[in-house]
Amino acid sequence: DAGVTQSPTHLIKTRGQQVTLRCSPKSGHDTVSWYQQALGQGPQFIFQYYEEEERQRGNFPDRFSGHQFPNYSSELNVNALLLGDSALYLCASSLDGGPVGSFGEGSRLTVL
Amino acid sequence: GIQVEQSPPDLILQEGANSTLRCNFSDSVNNLQWFHQNPWGQLINLFYIPSGTKQNGRLSATTVATERYSLLYISSSQTTDSGVYFCAVKAAGNKLTFGGGTRVLVKP
């Protein structure tokens, strides 16, 4: 039974570029949440997707957008990258927004 | 929004020692979870404990919701317990708010 899988694991971009990160939830889970974790800090909630809709959003600018597909997988897109977007991006899955059962291993983004 | 504070920020233990990590939160919550982040960055769910006490092997947790705090106990610590421990709460809505974490180093 596969847990949450994320890709890519590492990537390097330059300022102004755009990036897409991908997440497949744990089997049987229908809700995907995205978090940003800066070095030395706790994860910060970006947004949550359920039934292909953004259900709740954290305090992040519109440069951060997402999508959920009918198979419950999800993408996180970040446009016009800034140096401050360098972080570990974590995806979590759950069943209908219940307790988070699983996090992926994360995508580590470096913006130069 | 809700505030989550964890203490201590750093903890160094000798293998075999016991320890207690604390999480204080500023408002009523309907969900509280403890996570362990390993050195490779993966977050592992340890407990879902909005109230009461739970035990899982050498780890146990207690949440006193009326007093807005939770405790995580590590007994007979092992080097594999090293990493960062996060408390995360959910008040209204679907957003988990994390504390700043407690960085634990267990020395052999």
3D architecture notes:
- The complex is a heterodimer of chains A (112) and B (108).
- With 112 residues, chain A is mostly beta strands.
- Chain A has one domain (5-111): Immunoglobulins (Immunoglobulin-like, Sandwich), CATH 2.60.40.10.
- In chain A, a hairpin with a 5-residue loop joins strand 7 and strand 8.
- Chain A is built from no helices and 11 strands.
- In chain A, strands 2, 4, 5, 6, 9, 10 and 11 form a 7-stranded mixed β-sheet that branches. A 4-stranded antiparallel β-sheet of chain A has the order 1-3-8-7, with no helix packed on it.
- Chain B is mainly β and 108 residues long.
- Chain B has a single domain (4-107), classed as Immunoglobulin-like.
- Helix content of chain B is 0%, strand content 57%.
- Chain B has no helices and 11 strands.
- Chain B is globular.
- Classes of the chains: A mainly beta (112), B mainly beta (108).
- Chain A binds chain B through residues 31, 33, 35, 37, 41-45, 48, 50, 55-56, 58, 88, 90, 92, 97, 99-106, 108, and chain B through 4, 31, 33, 35, 40-45, 48, 86, 88, 93-101.
Could you estimate the helical fraction of the residues of chain A in percent?
A: under 10%
Specify the CATH class of chain B: Mainly Beta
Number of strands of chain B: 11
Give the overall pLDDT of chain B as a whole number: 95
What is the terminal separation of chain A in angstroms? 37 Å
- Structural class estimated from helices and strands of chain B: mainly beta
Sheet-strand content of chain B, in percent, reads: over 45%
What is the H-and-E element order of chain B? EEEEEEEEEEE
Jot down its keywords.
heterodimer, A: 112 residues, mainly beta, Immunoglobulin-like, 7-stranded mixed beta sheet, 4-stranded antiparallel beta sheet, 11 strands, B: 108 residues, 6-stranded mixed beta sheet, 5-stranded antiparallel beta sheet, 0% helix, globular
Secondary-structure blueprint:
The complex is a heterodimer of chains A (112) and B (108).
Chain A: E1 5-7, E2 10-13, E3 19-24, E4 31-37, E5 44-50, E6 53-57, E7 64-68, E8 74-78, E9 87-94, E10 102-103, E11 107-111
Chain B: E1 4-7, E2 10-14, E3 19-25, E4 31-37, E5 43-48, E6 52-56, E7 59-64, E8 69-74, E9 83-90, E10 97-98, E11 102-107
